[in-house]
Specification:
Helix content: 40-55%
Distance between the termini: 25 Å
Number of strands: 7
Shape: globular
Strand order of the largest sheet: 3-4-2-5-1-6-7
Number of domains: 1
CATH class: Alpha Beta
CATH architecture: 3-Layer(aba) Sandwich
Bound molecules: cytidine-5'-diphosphate
Radius of gyration: 17 Å
Structural class: alpha/beta
Number of helices: 9
CATH topology: Rossmann fold
Strand content: 15-25%
């Protein structure tokens, strides 16, 4: 499944555990492409909401993925996508998308569709990919798997600080509620629940900066022989 020549660094973990910043730093340092797999789930959620669909109605969601055209693009070592020719940009970070994405991510047809698309991003070259099931399902054969975690309160603080005023969240408690609800759905769903991949190193980043975590991973990769 994994093209032997392509190296994948798989970084999983719950919401706002620092995966994006860390995966980005690691990708930059190694000269690999960066893939935020959650943005793909958010992209489909954005499209569903824009079409006025009921995201809890699986039939409507499945019909959407069958009719839409989603394409990957790799630009300046960041892999992203278009849906029916459009790039959603920051709209995938809005509160409505945030509140509905876990419903969409629980639909097994959506997961099959996106797992295929995410695996196919290996055609662009070596990858640092972050998400919920990268080490367990998307690239289970990866030799380089990490699971980032942090206390929920710390994760909510980090997420609140990176949100813009337009995001719709009033305060850090509203963010904590939303993260907690989403974590619960992500860990208890039937299809590819969030779990620690076999062979993954668990890193608790509660009292570490993203730079510290990235340095730690890079040191590991170096000692495993990667030219970091
Ligand atoms: O940024 P944050 O960690 O809050 O979330 P994200 O990585 O953007 O992912 C948004 C949602 O997509 C998650 O809450 C999951 O429901 C889903 N997701 C998933 O199911 N599998 C992935 N590989 C990535 C994201």
């Amino acid at each position: 499944m994994l093209n032997n020549e392509v190296i994948v660094v798989a970084i999983d973990g719950p919401s706002a555990s620092g995966k994006s910043t860390v995966a980005h730093l690691v990708a930059d340092r190694l000269g690999f492409n960066y893939v935020d797999s959650g943005s793909f789930y958010r992209g489909i959620t954005w499209k569903a909401l824009r079409e006025g669909l009921d995201t809890a109605d699986q039939e409507q969601v499945i019909a959407l993925i069958n009719r839409m055209d989603m394409q990957c693009i790799c630009r300046e070592r960041v892999v992203t996508f278009t849906i029916d020719g459009e790039e959603p940009g920051d709209q995938i970070r809005s509160q409505p998308v945030q509140e509905h994405v876990s419903d969409i991510a629980a639909v097994s047809e959506v997961r099959t569709f996106l797992v295929g698309m995410l695996r196919d991003t290996a055609r662009f070259g070596h990858l640092a990919m972050e998400g919920r099931d990268i080490g367990t399902v998307v690239f289970p054969d990866s030799m380089y798997k990490y699971y980032l975690d942090a206390d929920p309160e710390e994760r909510a603080r980090r997420r609140f600080n990176e949100l813009t005023a337009e995001s719709g969240y009033e305060d850090v408690n509203a963010v904590l509620d939303s993260l907690t609800r989403r974590d619960r759905k992500d860990t208890t769903r039937k299809a590819a629940p969030l779990q620690i991949a076999l062979g993954a190193e668990v890193i608790d980043s509660t009292s570490m900066t993203a730079e510290d975590v990235a340095e730690h991973i890079i040191a590991r990769l170096k000692s495993a022989g990667l030219p970091a």
